[in-house]
Amino acid sequence: MSAVTEDVVDSASIAAASTKRKSLWLIAIKNPNVIVGGAILLIMLTIAALAPFLGTVDPTRIDPAARNKKPGTEITMRLDDGQTVKRVALFGTDSLGRDVYSRVIYGTRVSLAVGVAVAIISVAIGTVIGLISGYVRWLDGIIMRIMDGLMAIPG
């Protein structure tokens, strides 16, 4: 007959691991920088997701009659189908008559996309450089000196 074996799991190590995870989360939640940064990111993501509903008009629509209007000005706008609509330009209009508020709202999408793309590209380049540096030992010192030189340049 075969002997039955049981894996003995140390319950103390499981409890320690779970409390460590909880404590890291609690530390992050108690940090005001994390709260403020998370709130700003959440607001930007919400604005980007709801841009079609929050924007008053098409951000690329040019209205020569509404050029350089002050914030809060009521503007009469002629639509493509011939109807006229009154709207308030919350942030005013630019020199081409485009609604600045709509451009800002839709601009959050572009800003977030650029930020995510730059982060992904940076991680990819850093990973490739790190793999090359770790695999080719003699190249490690050269890459380290190049990085030191780049880090010495301010800004």
Write the layout of secondary structure elements.
Elements: H1 11-30, H2 32-49, H3 51-54, E1 73-78, E2 84-89, H4 100-135, H5 137-152
Antiparallel strand pairs: 1-2
Descriptive notes:
The chain is mainly alpha-helical. It has a domain of 103 residues. 61% of the residues lie in helices and 8% in strands. It contains 5 helices and 2 strands, in the order αααββαα. Strands 1-2 form a two-stranded antiparallel ribbon. β1 and β2 form a beta hairpin. The longest helix is centred in the C-terminal third of the chain and has 36 residues. The N and C termini lie far apart (72 Å). The mean pLDDT is 87.
Tell me the number of helical segments per DSSP (H or I, 4 or more residues long): 5
Largest sheet: 2 strands, antiparallel
Which structural class is indicated by helix and strand composition? mainly alpha
Query: What percent of residues adopt helix (DSSP H or I)?
Result: 55-70%
Shape: elongated
Spatial strand order of the main sheet: 1-2
Low confidence ranges: none
How many β-strand stretches?
2
Radius of gyration in whole Å, from Cα? 28 Å
Strand content: 5-15%
SSE sequence, one letter per element: HHHEEHH
Mean pLDDT: 87
Taking the alpha carbons of the first and last residues, their distance comes to 72 Å
